[in-house]
Design goal:
Blueprint: E1 23-26, E2 29-31, H1 33-40, E3 43-47, E4 51-53, H2 67-74, H3 77-86, E5 90-91, H4 92-98, E6 103-105, H5 109-121, H6 125-137, H7 146-158, H8 161-171
Parallel strand pairs: 1-3, 2-4, 3-6
Antiparallel strand pairs: 4-5
Helix pairs in contact: 2-3, 6-7
Length: 183
């Protein structure tokens, strides 16, 4: 069977993403579909011993779950070509140096992923969701469309109760009490 969840793509994640941030925690090998699922996430945290790659060419296959599409969007083309054509994996540190991985940890990746999630969760949820949406979608927008299309993501954020709470908390030098309420 194909591990595809309807229009959500491979693993239920490669053609769709929830509005909240998704963090991949990689402790071992993220190869083939594992890398494609990690690339479908918004952030990747990896243990120092993790490996990343798309070895499908070594088996006469193609990384069709998003690997050959996402890698050239995230890396310089020659590096994406090398990963796809050689099938050789790279280390977590190399993936970090290339910008594929956000954090490398000596301990379990899930612990560092939870710490990163806590930092994100402390921020205004409407702002986080809007920022994620713009970053994920804007690569398709022409320069002429950027401001118009961006407004569809942010218009409700600036007039929200959370925006007022954020400014008030800053002025009062306290943590914000987010309500996730729009105006």
């Amino acid at each position: 069977e194909l591990p595809v969840a309807g229009d959500r793509g491979f693993g239920g994640l490669t053609s769709w993403t929830p509005s909240k941030p998704v963090i991949a925690a990689v402790d071992g090998y993220a190869l083939a579909g594992g890398l494609e699922l990690a690339l479908a996430c918004d952030l990747i945290v990896a243990n120092v011993n993790a490996k990343f790659g798309i070895p499908e060419a070594k088996r006469g296959l193609v990384a069709a779950g998003g690997g050959v599409v996402q890698l050239p969007r995230l890396l310089p083309r020659p590096l994406a070509m090398e990963l796809a054509l050689t099938g050789d994996p790279i280390t977590a540190q190399r993936a970090y140096d290339l910008g594929l991985v956000n954090r490398v940890t000596e301990g379990p990746a899930i612990e560092a992923a939870r710490e990163l999630a806590q930092v994100i969760a402390a921020n205004g949820p409407l702002a986080v969701i809007a920022s994620k949406g713009i970053i994920r979608d804007s690569w398709l927008w022409s320069d002429a469309e950027v401001m118009i299309k961006q407004n569809g993501y942010i218009g409700h954020v600036f007039g929200s109760e959370d925006a007022r709470e954020g400014a008030k908390a800053l002025a009062e030098k306290r943590k914000a009490n987010w309500q996730r309420k729009e105006a």
